[in-house]
Write a structure and sequence with these properties.
Radius of gyration: 24 Å
Shape: globular
Largest sheet: 5 strands, mixed
Number of strands: 15
Distance between the termini: 30 Å
Length: about 450
C-alpha cells in the first residue's frame, strides 16, 4: 500500500519496488494499491505486461526523463489547442467535463511525450498469468456542500472492475462513466483513457477551505459544528427490541440558512471530477442493514439518511483527500500503533506492528520517508567513503527540501538520490520484512489447524 504525494511518491514507488525486486519479494505480493502520484507510477509500470520480471532500470530511466524535463510546455499554444480538442471530444462522447479532466490531460503531458491512449482495461494483459500483483487504484467519492468529515466513500479501480466495497457494487472499467439506472445501462459511453483517471486519482485542486483551516489551526471542529446537518436520536428507550430490517428513529435537522451559507463557503472546491453514477436507482437502502456487503460508516452522517446515499445521485464526485485515523473510526481491526516522542522527532526506517492474539488484525510494516543510515551507507553493510558522502545527503524533511509535494520537476541528481534512498530503506530492513512474512505464514498455519 503506497501513499500519495505527487512527484515525490511517483519517484519513491520505483525505488521501493526495485528494492523488493532485488530481494526477490515481489512474487510474494498479491496486490498493490495506491493513490495520487503512486497511481502515476503504477499505471506506467502496468503498460509492460511483464514489468516485475524485467530489470526495473529501464522503467526508472523513462520516469527520470519525464520528472527532470521542463514543464513549461504544459501551457504552450499547441498544448492548449490539444486540451480544447480533447475536452470537446470527451463532451461529445457524453461525459460531463470539469477542470479535473483538464488536470488529467496536464498529467498526461508530465508523464509522456505525446497522447496516451492506454486504458485501465488494457492492464489485464499484465495479469493474465498472475505474473504481477493486482493493481488497485483508490480515490474518494464525496458530495458537494459536505465536508469529508460528513461524507466520504472509497472507490476502487482495478483492470477488472470499478466500484464501492461499501455497497458491494462494481462495474467493469469499460462501463465506468456510462449512464445506469436500476442496474441497467441506459447509455454506453466509450471507456476513458487512463489520463482522465489520473485526474480523478490525483485531484490536488479538490481541497476545500474547511480542510485547509483544519490543517492550519485545527479549527474544523468549530466550523463543522455550525455547518453540518444534525441527527437527533428520538428513541425514548434505546433498548427497545427492533427487527433486523428496522432503522432506529432519528430526527434529521437540515442546516439553517446561515449554516448553509457557511457550509457552501467552507466546502466549496475549485473542481471535482464528475462521472455518471452507476448506482443510480438501485434502492440499496431497502435492506442495506441486512446486506452483509454494506457497512454503515461512522465517517458519514448521511448513512443515517438512506435517501441521501450515493444511489440517489446523478454523478459521483471523485477527489483525492487525505484520510486520517480512518481505521479506528470505522471499527476496522488494526494494530495499536504507538510511536514515542523520539520516534516522532527521529523516525526509524521501518516499523513493524503485529498484534498477536488477534487473527483478524493485519500485520503492518510501515516505511516512513526518512534518511537515516543511508547518509553513511551506500548499500546495507557498505560504508560510504569520503567522496561518496554527498550522495547520501538527501534532504526529505526540511522546509527547503527539493521533494515538496507541490514540486513537479527534480534535477537528475535529486531524482537519483530519492530512488536510491527508497530502495536502500527496503533492502536495509530485509530482516524485518522476512520476519513479518514468517509471522504471517505461522498465523495462517495456526488458523488452518484450528479449523
Amino acid at each position: 500500500m503506497t501513499t500519495g504525494g505527487g512527484t515525490r511518491s511517483f519517484t519513491t514507488t520505483f525505488g521501493t519496488l526495485r528494492g523488493l525486486q532485488k530481494l526477490n519479494l515481489i512474487d510474494c505480493v498479491t496486490y498493490m494499491s495506491g493513490l495520487s502520484g503512486t497511481c502515476w507510477a503504477m499505471a506506467q509500470m502496468y503498460r509492460d505486461a511483464y514489468w516485475s520480471h524485467r530489470n526495473m532500470d529501464e522503467l526508472i530511466c523513462e520516469a527520470k526523463k519525464h520528472v527532470t524535463k521542463s514543464k513549461m510546455g504544459v501551457f504552450s499554444i499547441d498544448r492548449m489547442k490539444y486540451y480544447q480538442q480533447q475536452l470537446n471530444k470527451r463532451k461529445e462522447e457524453g461525459y460531463k467535463t470539469t477542470f479535473i479532466d483538464l488536470w488529467g490531460l496536464m498529467i498526461e503531458y508530465l508523464l509522456h511525450d505525446g497522447k496516451d491512449n492506454h486504458k485501465l482495461s488494457d492492464q489485464r494483459e499484465a495479469l493474465t498469468e498472475g505474473q504481477n500483483p493486482l493493481p488497485i487504484y483508490v480515490t474518494l467519492n464525496i458530495k458537494e456542500k459536505y465536508s469529508t468529515q460528513d461524507f466520504k466513500e472509497w472507490v476502487e479501480f482495478t483492470p477488472y472492475e470499478v466500484g464501492f466495497l461499501k455497497y458491494g457494487t462494481f462495474v467493469c472499467p469499460e462501463n465506468f462513466g456510462s449512464e445506469f439506472f436500476m442496474g441497467r445501462m441506459i447509455k454506453k459511453l466509450p471507456e476513458s483513457r487512463i489520463s482522465y483517471l489520473h485526474g480523478m486519482w490525483s485531484s490536488i485542486f479538490s481541497v476545500n477551505l474547511l480542510y485547509l483551516l483544519n490543517k492550519v489551526n485545527n479549527s474544523e471542529e468549530f466550523w463543522h459544528r455550525w455547518t453540518r446537518d444534525k441527527i437527533i436520536d428520538i428513541e425514548e428507550d434505546p433498548n427497545l427490541p427492533t427487527r433486523p430490517y428496522e432503522l432506529k428513529s432519528h430526527m434529521f435537522v437540515p442546516a439553517g440558512n446561515l449554516s448553509s451559507a457557511f457550509r457552501g463557503f467552507l466546502t466549496d472546491r475549485l473542481s471535482v471530477a464528475q462521472s455518471h453514477n452507476f448506482l443510480k436507482g438501485l434502492q440499496l437502502h431497502n435492506d442495506y442493514l441486512e446486506n452483509e456487503q454494506f457497512q454503515r460508516w461512522k465517517a458519514t452522517v448521511l448513512d443515517y439518511c438512506p435517501n441521501q446515499l450515493t444511489e440517489h445521485d446523478d454523478y459521483l464526485g471523485l477527489p483525492l483527500e487525505e484520510a486520517c485515523k480512518f481505521y479506528s473510526e470505522q471499527g476496522i481491526p488494526f494494530p495499536n500503533v504507538v510511536l514515542t516522542e523520539e520516534d516522532k522527532k527521529n523516525p526509524k526506517e521501518c516499523y513493524y506492528f503485529n498484534q498477536t492474539g488477534s487473527p483478524e488484525c493485519p500485520q503492518v510494516l510501515f516505511f516512513p520517508l526518512v534518511n537515516d543510515t543511508f547518509q553513511h551507507y551506500r548499500a546495507p553493510g557498505e560504508k560510504r567513503n569520503d567522496d561518496e558522502m554527498h550522495a547520501g545527503n538527501t534532504d526529505v524533511s526540511s522546509t527547503s527540501s527539493p521533494y515538496g509535494t507541490h514540486l513537479l520537476t527534480y534535477s537528475e541528481e535529486d531524482f537519483d538520490k530519492l530512488v536510491n534512498l527508497s530502495e536502500y530503506n527496503i533492502m536495509n530492513n530485509q530482516h524485518i520484512i522476512l520476519q513479518a512474512l514468517h509471522d504471517a505464514v505461522a498465523r495462517k498455519r495456526q488458523c488452518y489447524h484450528r479449523y
